[in-house]
Amino acid sequence: MGTNDISILAIESSCDETSASMIVNGKVLNNIVATQSVHEKYGGVVPELASRAHQENLIPVIHEAISTSGVSKDQLSAVAFTRGPGLMGSLLVGVSFAKAFARALNVPLIDVNHMQAHVLAHFIEDPKPSFPFICLTVSGGHTQLVLVKDFLDMEVIGETQDDAVGEAFDKTAKLLGLPYPGGPLVDKYAKEGNPKAFQFPITRMPGLNYSFSGIKTAVLYFLRDQLQENPKFIEENLPDLCASIQYTLIEMLLIKLKEAVKQYGVKEIAIAGGVSANSGLRSTLSELARRKGWNLYIPKFEYCTDNAAMIAMAAHYKYLKGEFVGMDVTPLAKMKF
């Protein structure tokens, strides 16, 4: 470690993953994540339980991030944290620790927008996209099309007007009787099914915006009618149902992505967020990119879900621009770019 090295500890606590990462001169050294299993029996993330779990997990996760990095806390240049968007109770845990730690070490504090960090996950490892590029950011809480002009210069050009696509996966999975989180299970069963077995409506919104609330209602009524005729309908058709639902959701995502590419004339395409781990989306998008001549960038699975490595990467570029915050900073459950 030289005296001019930029060493940042980054903390992520926006939802139900507690994570810490060390980054030195733009190179991520580790990415420690503690997941929370307490929510499974409730069928979704319980905010109060999430914040309590963060309190339990945060110190061990940070200790491991520092101890395995070869960087001592006295060598830190700054402390970074997720400011939002996210669950307020969860964010508070990370923000409070970051403020106390930065003050104790007398180093600057860097706030990071969680959604910008998802985009910047593409710069953790090679290959990296060139500017400008379009990033389809898809998760349980967000669905956005982002025009990325530079590391910290991003514009949301389209987004969901109601449910996020990850929420649509989980809600339809629940209708099929699958346990939480249902999205990965839909993906699993879809591999064995026929995506054209059942047809569900594709909601079309103005411009580049999305709407995913309608498919849940369509699936609900479809299943109600089928179960009246055959009580074992779901059980007998689960792979085909999952494949058909997944096909519809992916089509909705890619219709708008294709429009965005045409509108902005950009062929550097990236995907980020938890739903980018979906194998159906990855394979369909890869085939589309091949046919269209796009350069496609998909992060490793570990950088798709919530993690501190992406927070660290965003913090590195904010450090270079001197973008720090004071001790009066507060978390934001809703946070714009």
Inertia-based shape: globular
Distance between the termini: 33 Å
> In the CATH hierarchy, what is the architecture of the largest domain at level 2?
2-Layer Sandwich
Tell me the count of domains. 2
Q: Which keywords apply here?
A:
Nucleotidyltransferase, domain 5, five-stranded mixed beta sheet, 42% helix, globular
Please provide a written account of the structure:
This protein has 337 residues and is α/β, with parallel strands linked by helices. The protein folds into two domains: 7-120 and 304-320, Nucleotidyltransferase, domain 5 (2-Layer Sandwich); 127-298, ATPase, nucleotide binding domain (Nucleotidyltransferase, domain 5, 2-Layer Sandwich). Helix content is 42%, strand content 18%. The chain contains nine helices and eleven strands. The strands form two sheets. Strands 1, 2, 3, 4, 5 and 6 form a six-stranded mixed beta sheet that branches. Strand 7 and strand 8 form a beta hairpin. The longest helix is centred in the C-terminal third of the chain and has 32 residues, at 233-264. The radius of gyration is 21 Å and the shape is globular. The two termini are 33 Å apart. The mean pLDDT is 94.
Quick structural overview:
The chain has 337 residues and is α/β, with parallel strands linked by helices.
Topology at a glance:
Layout: E1 7-12, E2 17-24, E3 27-28, E4 32-35, H1 47-67, E5 78-84, H2 88-105, E6 109-113, H3 114-120, E7 133-138, E8 143-150, E9 153-159, H4 165-175, H5 183-190, H6 213-229, H7 233-264, E10 268-272, H8 279-292, E11 295-297, H9 308-320
Parallel strand pairs: 1-5, 5-6, 7-10, 10-11
Antiparallel strand pairs: 1-2, 2-3, 2-4, 7-8, 8-9
